[in-house]
Design a protein that fits this description.
alpha+beta, Peroxisomal Thiolase, Chain A, domain 1, eight-stranded mixed beta sheet, about 25% strand
Amino acid sequence: MDKVFHIAAHLTIQNNQINLNGEELYESNAEDFISFSKEVYKYLEIDYPKFFKMDNLSKLAFLGAEILLRNQGLNDSDNDIALVLANRSSSLDTDYKYQQSIADKESYYPSPAVFVYTLPNICIGEISIRHKLYSENTFFIFESFNAAFLTNYSTHLLTSRKAEKVLMGWVEYFQGEYKAFMCLIAEEGLEVFNKEIIKEIYTK
């Protein structure tokens, strides 16, 4: 009989609002994501100055992970939580900003601070550093949210014992539009983990 895993917690960040396990956690009237992310950082009482150097995709993923992982009793080692994230636009929002920094021949100056975020998996690195995660991690690019693939991949990591838990989700940011859907998968939790449930939660 196949082992059954569960959704320990899930959240959505979109339109200046954070919903945790189906309940509103935070809502803002911020004018844009930059202002909203600063408000959430302050609301969560995070002390991590590097946050303000991150690109918007990394900030979005970082905040989602912060909420889902802060009560997991993490320590300085052996935090066996895999990271499986995906989106549609990759790091295109940051790529575009970097291109702008080198396009003007009169004021040509490629920005190292922007260049470092021109890969989507950098957001995984930021989460891993913050929470000292040393297990499996990967970032996929899909045309749209692919519940079946992400569910199957996460289940494989768990059944093969490559991770004790999986932080899985969709983290999309492009030109001010954003959505993060993230969930923590473990042996015990709120409800059974399968692609149908994941689809249902994502579309709510």
